[in-house]
């Protein structure tokens, strides 16, 4: 399942975070990072998935 989340995090970072933690602070932070730049959103999403 983590492999699917990582692939989704690369394609759509907020979706990967949503599948890992749901709608919460990390989800909204990831949306903000993705809007500021696609790469920061990917890095944050992969970090959240790898941390748990």
From TrEMBL:
It is found in: Membrane. The chain crosses the membrane at residues 7-25, 31-50. It comes from the Bacteria. Keywords: Membrane, Transmembrane, Transmembrane helix. The keyword Coiled coil does not apply. Its main location: membrane. Belongs to the UPF0057 (PMP3) family. This is YqaE/Pmp3 family membrane protein.
